[in-house]
Amino acid sequence: MRAPDAEPEEPAPRETLTWDDRLHYRRQFEAVYTRGVRIAGRSFTLFILPNDCGHSRLGVTVSRKVGNAVVRNQARRRLREIFRRQRAALGPGTDIVIHTRPEAARRPLAALREEFLAGLARFRAARGELR
After folding, report:
1. How many domains does the chain fold into?
2. What is the pLDDT along the chain (131 residues), one digit of tens a residue?
3. Which domain holds residue 69?
4. CB–CB of 89/117 below 8 Å?
5. Which of 41, 46, 47, 87 makes an SS bond possible with 97, Cβ 3.0 to 4.6 Å?
């Protein structure tokens, strides 16, 4: 219980991905594929496109080559978690589509996170940003 004269706590940062934080429609994915920057990695390919909506959005594509439904859903959940935790590092207004490869299902979460951050660093270097 909090003391009556204590300072009010700051609101906690949002932990979940809302409807607005995800890409849902084919035209959104196609825009990122055609106009975005493609960054290939060992476990996945990142397609990154700056947007004008003021917040970052994520789309994940996982083919049957990755594994059965359980494995594909696990890979999708892990990639969404990486995006959710790194959202602040993305800056405002970025659309990202992650196209997974079968290796994504076998790699540990820490290795996927490092690969994601390395891909973001390559994107910023290509754009001339210093973050």
Report:
1. 1
2. 555 555 556 555 567 888 889 999 999 999 999 999 999 999 999 999 999 988 899 999 999 999 999 999 999 999 999 999 988 878 778 999 999 999 999 999 999 999 999 999 999 888 776 54
3. 20-127
4. yes
5. 47
**pTM of the predicted model as reported, rounded to 2 decimal places:** 0.83
- Asked if residue 41 is part of any domain, the answer here is yes
8 A C-beta contact, residue 43 and residue 115: yes
Closest CA to 55 of 100, 24, 17, 12: 17
Q: What is the domain-level CATH number for residue 63?
A: 3.30.230.10
- For residue 123, tell me if it sits in a domain: yes
Question: SS3 letters for 27-82?
Answer: HHHHHHHHHCEEEECCCEEEEEEECCCCCCEEEEECCHHHCCHHHHHHHHHHHHHH
